Structures are given as structure tokens and as C-alpha cells.
Amino acid sequence: MLKMATWNVNSLRVRLPQVLEWLATERPDVLAIQETKLPDADFPLADIETAGYRAIYSGQKTYNGVATLMRAEPREVERDLPGLEDPQRRIVGATIGDLRVLNVYVPNGESVGSAKYQYKLEWIEQLRSYLVEQLAIHPRLIVLGDFNVAPEDRDVHDPKAWEGQVLFSGPERAAFRGLLATGLSDAFRLVNQNAGEFSWWDYRMNAFRRNLGLRIDHILVSAETARTVRTCRIERAWRQRERPSDHAPVVAEFEQ
DNA sequence: ATGGTTGCAACGCAA
Hints:
Elements: E1 2-8, H1 12-26, E2 30-34, H2 45-50, E3 54-58, E4 66-70, E5 75-78, E6 91-96, E7 99-105, H3 115-137, E8 141-146, H4 159-162, H5 170-180, E9 184-186, H6 187-191, E10 200-201, E11 213-214, E12 217-222, H7 223-226, E13 229-234, E14 250-254
Helix pairs in contact: 3-5
This protein binds one DNA strand through residues 10-11, 13-14, 35, 37, 61-63, 108, 110, 116, 148, 202-207, 243, 245-246.
């Protein structure tokens, strides 16, 4: 079984001990991390390598930043979204074995109608055209990360209250469906049809304790890869820990 | 009810 995961860690500096413990416990083949919030010069490569992993990363000071940790040697590494001049570090891609793996941190969007919301929609559209190109080259494609979009009512604790709000607005959900329309499937929904399974809970208002969450972290797989998905789960327990990220890891297992 | 919490970095900004 090949095991791949995504986790928005909200500062790799703060969460490094949890990431190392998580790697030791789960032993995944690939872990995609978002919101590292540190420049490449400060990336804790030695700790990652001691844990038995290689790493590729694209970071910046204070905000954003992505890293992919893996056992195998990465090839054809890319750190930019083609066609978008963007100082924000939000994507890192690599070929790992016979899989093409894209790790993404989609913009949050702040609020509907804001400049950041517009940037979010443009970023997703740019990602969509890139996926069309990538799928033509790599039939075994996996796109995983923090998409900052809850696709459906069952991915939101209170869809009526969230209707029209950022992370769940119509245009964001339509943009997300556009990503799927390139030929990708949501790995979680291939194996789990439950409502009320979330990957992110706000730090405020005791949202986790009350399970006021959204499912916004996803593992999208091409048709050829979808056939091999065996499990996909959200590891809520890591959101319950002392000093947690506001996101839980999402893990998928594939038959080799 | 426009709140509240966390991380970064220095105080407001982003999420």
C-alpha cells in the first residue's frame, strides 16, 4: 500500500515536533504540508532527513509556504504555477515513482467580493488550466492540499449559515467543480459518503469541541489513480492535541 | 453579536 497525506500545519516551526511524531507513527510515503510560514533558508531539512524523508519546499517569510516530504527521490520539481506571476509560495510539484504529485495551498479568499477573493478565484482557474496540461503528460496525477473550499453541503456543519460565505460561496464551489471536471476525483468521496466529516475547525469559539468545522483539505486523483484508492480518512485526533494546527491530516492509501 | 484565537513579529495582518 502506498500512503499519501496532506496537512496544513499552520507554522512548521511550531508544529515540527508534531510532524516528526506523525511521520514516525504513520510512516507515509508522501506528506504534503501547507502554511510552513518560513523561508527556505530556515527549512528544518536535517530533522526531516533524520526521520528518513527527503523534502522539497517553497517557502517565504511569515505567510504561506508548502513542502512535500517523501521517501523516494523527487524528480521534475516545480515551484511555480505556470502563467501566474506570484510572489506567494503556494505550490510545489514533483514526480515520485510513477506518480505526479502537486501540493497546493489555495488562497483563503478573506471575504466574498474582496481583492483576495478575486485572487483566489483567479488562482484556482490558473491551477485548472495547469491540471489540464499535467493530466495530458501524467495520467497518474494526485493533487493534494488545502483547497480552502468546502465542496458540498455535507462538508459544512451548517450549510444554511455558510451559504454565500467565503470557503463555501457559489463561485468557489463552481471553481472547485472546475478542477474535478479536468478528470479528477475527490478521494475521500470515493470511499466515504458521510456528512459532518471535517478537516478544519476555527481556533475560536470552541469550534472543534462543538464540531463546527468544514472539509476543505482534499486529495484529488486522476481516473487511473482513482481505481487504486483503498482508504481515505481524516485524523481528527491531531486537531484535539495540545497546541494543534487548526487543520487535521487527511490520509489516503492506494493499492500498488 | 462582525465577536473569538493562533502565529508572526512587533502591532496589525492573515487565517
